[in-house]
Predict the 3D structure of the following.
Amino acid sequence: MLDRDLVEEVLRAARRKGGDVAEVFVEERSSTSIRLDDGRVEELTSGLDRGAGVRVTLGTTYGYAYSNRLDRDALLGAAEAASAAIRGDAAGPVVDLTERAGPGTNRAERPASALPAADKVRWLREVDEVARGVSPEVVQVTGIYADSAQRRLIAASDGRWIDELRPRIRLVAQVVAKRGDVIQTGWDGPAACAGVEFLDAHPPATTARNAATRAVTMLDSVPAPAGEMPVVVVNGCGGVLFHEAVGHPLEADAVDKEASVYRGLVGTRCASELIDGVDDATIPNGWGSFDFDDEGEPAQRTVLFTGGVLQGFLQDRMHAAKMGVAPTGNARRESYAHPPIVRMTNTNILPGREDPEEIVRSTARGLYVRGLGGGQVNPATGDFVFGVSEGYLIEDGHVSTPVRGANLIGRAIEVMSSVDAVGSDFETWEGVCGKDGQGAPVGSGSPTLRIGRITVGGTGA
Amino acid sequence: MPELRELVRAAVDAAAPGEQVEAYAEESRHTEVKALRGEVEGMTFAESRGVGVRVIADGRLGYAWAADPSPEEVVATLERARANAALAEPDEHHGLPEAQPAPALDGLFDRSSAATPVQDKVDLALELERYAISRDPRVSKLDLAQVGDAVSSMAIASTAGVEAGYARTDAWVVVVTLAVDGDETQTGFSYAIERGLGGLAWQPIAEEAVDRGVQMLGAVKPPTAKLPVVLDPFAASSFLGVLAGALNAENVLKGRSLFAGRIGEEVGSAAVTLVDDGRRADGPGSCPFDDEGVPSGRTELFRAGTLEAYLHDTYTARRTGDGQRSTGNAKRAGYRSTPGVGTSNFYLEEGTPSFDELLAQADGGVLIMDVTGVHSGANPISGEFSVGATGRRIAGGELGEPLREMTIASTLPDMLRAVTAVGSDLRFFSSVGTPSVLISEMTLAGV
């Protein structure tokens, strides 16, 4: 993308005042998005984005400057601005840049860019037809198709040079169902770092049917109960809970600022002994996977919990150096317009031994969570919420009436410690996580699990 | 570097006969400084520019954008937009707005703020942290002390005769405190945005963030109950975003709003008057015209509880028919996106009672100071919500015990009908503003 001599010149300029590491991140991204709404293909958008960011770090402080102009003047200007933040006056060296190759975690068999837009439009029409065919109560269908190809160059003063291509594809169905005055919604949206072959395994018709069935099912729902009770979380959904409640407070920047409930707890049990958890960027074609993170560290599988005992934190280079541990490859950025920060990749609770159906049968009364709308955590206090988009009552060991307007609220350590059953099944969920104003595609996964006691925030009895 | 006006002109000049073309260009420069432990934790400088081109031909819409294009690349972008349009389905309601004169809006650009040296921003961030940790022995560290500012400009031109542009400055501070007592940590957030760095009253923001953290120390989980609730402006503002979605005419037209078909009906108590005003002097979202070039205006959505109007852009106005005009609410998330209906300064009009008077009317209830999980816990289509909350008990008109790990739940219609009073303490958070609000009853879930 950029000439190696120019990149070296920019790195040298960025090191004019020293610092620990100078780094250049260059990005070119082409994207296509198509939206079908109200029975019509409304909008096709294509974009070409490019830009570069220069960062200079010293300890855990940094200067960052970016531009979406890629000429020499703009890049040297960014190097000058980024290095202005560093307190020092002796220039640092730049090691000869050497290319590092990755394993090809996110190879696209059939790149989306090679497919005519008309074929992509056809998938959305199928979404509309299938969803409306589920029930006459389906009144509105939105289908969104998006793909992108992001080429990234990372070069740093320690000699690393990484050039990686990341393909992304996603197809979303959002359905509205109506009966009298009652309106309900359903959503499904599988996603991967892959080519269009991903849609063979996750056909648009299935996505449409899932979303429509959810919306129609929820028309029969009653207001969710309020108060503490056992909650069975179906496979896939528990991963999002783990991401919010546990993953964010395990990010090293929160730990370093003393804004994490898990600070000082490495090596101690702070979850049920049934919990084994990992953050894994090496899963082939995973939504949160890559070969190298956005600082150029190799992707890793980082063990977070073994038998409920905390094993360590998620690290970028700055915080790992400060804590005296190895980086875990968890530095990510939304684009060249953002400095890298500590983020999760694919965060999973590993499968256990119990029969998922038996977990429900052995629950006398509680809530069964089968769909979710995301969540939020305060890492410093560990207080988190988790929106339930598809929930049911459990009565006498059976899943019964659907409920709406439910939310789960709890404290990370207490809730993870009260998990008393972990199933042998496993499923994943793909989302976009927000932190410090940056969005990052993240995967999460889990088996079916039961939380012995957690507050359900509904309005009903 | 070509001027923005030159770039948008290039697209319009390249329009084919019978084709409607609109180009939108923007550029911005922003700086952000974060202070931590007496040092600069991070400094970010940004420069970006880009152009988005919208084409309507035979009722078909196509869009394409490019970062930092030359005039020739703008023409290539138009060609890509044209190719996209060919694949879309026709919709007779697509159309560009005719040029309308927009009265100038003074005060959007603060020259002295735009010229502020970086070192002054660094000093301000360091001072902000120093000041915040000097207020209370329980707050000796912060999660975030940030100072930021932006200088931006936009230009728009179309084959319908629109040719306009403006420049603006914005400046903001964000403070998140860590209040510590023994093993317990609580956080306190505050934020302000103004036109320029000189206008930022940062000390009160720091004091407020300290106070909001310290107040939460010792918080307990309350029992489940139905209670009167006062939402402070921080908490109430979270709900305004949900209301904005339900009042977006596109959602109304497409069956995704609980307010569809209810103009003229009473949808809230008489205390509820909800306004969008793009020309408010003190509004962070003010602009002379919207992102299609339509002049900004003032729209009353609810007047004393009655649904009066929805928010429109040109497309939704044309599709609604009946002489409906755009309310000047076409907004973009930058040059990468087509315009859609959005808010400018969207706010709940203030009432007369002070905050203390609201507390006095909510005896035995709770003050909600923060809500979380609104993006997942509140559904703008069905109107149901259940969100995490923190706050304090209200007893005898005074604030009591702090509360955490609870949820509040209701539906938007029930909540709007249960608004007993609206305070006089209107405050804007980015483009939404609200005073404190007293709600006669909500379900609070805890133990």
In short: The first strand of chain A starts at residue 21 and ends at 37. The mean pLDDT of chain A is 95. Residues 334 and 438 of chain A are 6 Å apart (CA to CA).
